[in-house]
Amino acid sequence: MKTTKQDAISVGAKNLSPKPLPPGWRWVRLGEVTTVVNGTTPASDNLEYWGGDIIWITPSDLGKLEQIEITHSARMITKAGLYSCNLTLVPPGTVVMSSRAPIGHLGIVKVSLCTNQGCKSFVPGQDVDSYFLYFSLKRSVWNLQQIGSGATFAEVSKSQCESFQIPLPPLPEQQRIAAILKEQMAAVEKARRAAEARLEAINALPAAFLRQVFPQPGQPLPDGWKWVNFGAITRNFDGMRVPVKQSDRKPGPYPYYGASGIIDFVSDYLFDGDYLLIAEDGANLVMRSTPIAFAASGKFWVNNHAHVVQPISDVLLDFLRFYFEVADISKFITGSAQPKLNQDDLNSVPIPLPPLSEQRRIAAILKEQMAAVEKARRAAQEELAAINALPAALLRRAFAGEL
Fold first, then answer.
1. Among 189, 175, 181, 70, which Cα is nearest to 130's?
2. Which H or E element spans position 159?
């Protein structure tokens, strides 16, 4: 059953619970067991208020936390800044939550600090463990987001926070659960970092494989290889390209290509066969976050942001495609605001070309290597996704009384 916003408000603001609580637990409003504190911002144009030694937290600071505890901020204020707008210093153990842009970044105060108006601080009462409160709010982020409101961006107010309910066991049980969760979350974070490192290493493999194969200009060529200009070994079909406005496209089965690959599927086609498409413009020519050259086969359409070429008979399309993944073409790109690789400059790109039989051998090896990399990448991504799902699962167990 889909949960509506009204359901979320009911769970958060009224004395209702979706499931019975474990024995000894009770539903409490945050305003009953914590003191909710607003933040604000000293006048930005008064230099006397800034550059002091008082930590001043914003949602951005919370979003960049790499641990639970808050120990520093990007900007610091002075005592004059603190007093200028009646800011409240909250004590160590306070849980701070971003209440807008976005709702739900969290941290626990390590040293006394204050916040801007984008945060709410929850000073726990004597019967509330700070870490248990932190994990309880973390588990409730989605519900808090649902009750937020605002024209520019969603925000949860102080009164809404005070009315929001959390399940609360006795203090010794809070401390036991919090200790287990801290240990489990630390293990999850360690596993996440290791999985991210594995994925990063896997993502670096294609470029490493390609650099081992392809010489760059200025490097000696293997026997039988030669440098040739791209235009001398390809035929260009840019004159056949026809861009179509998105509002004028009719949906259909044929791929519609742009500078970054397929951007739509349309009802008609311009080309039918095997072609190499190379980005003509766009930031990706410089950033190279995705391949700038890709094969297009069968029936398809191309707009005017990708060059359309076919190699001559003794040149393999896949060999050229692989080379462009590591080719340094920076000196052939013009424009800074809008990088562009025009047709004349593309034709001037030097290509290290071996005999056709060697091209086939290299392309076959690279295809096999890239397939293995892709298989490893999918496995690493699945592993990372499973790890990223663990915190929510651990919190569900904890607050169901299953720890």
1. 175
2. helix 158-163
**Which element (helix H / strand E) includes 264?**
strand 261-266
> Distance between CA 334 and CA 338 in Å, rounded?
8
Question: Which residue's entry shows tokens 């994990």?
Answer: 135
The residue behind tokens 């393999």 is 316
- Residues 97 and 164 sit within 8 Å (Cβ to Cβ): no
Amino acid identity of 25? Answer: W
Average pLDDT over residues 155-174: 96
Peptide bond before 291: cis, by omega within 30 degrees of 0? no
Characterize the bridge pairing of strands 114-115 and 50-57. parallel
Length of the chain: 403
**Distance in angstroms (rounded) separating the CA atoms of residues 100 and 157:** 9
Q: Give the E-state strand segments of 66-176 in sequence order.
A: 69-70, 75-77, 95-99, 103-109, 114-115, 119-124, 165-168
**Residue 63 in contact with residue 99, Cβ under 8 Å?**
no
Phi, psi of 350 (to 5 degrees): -75, 140
Predicted pLDDT at 179: 97
Identity of the amino acid at 127: D
Strand partners, 255: 265
Side chain identity at 179, as an amino acid letter?
A
The pLDDT tens digits of the residues spanning 198-257 come to 999 999 999 999 999 999 888 899 999 999 999 999 999 999 999 999 999 999 999 999
Q: What is the CA radius of gyration of the chain?
A: 29
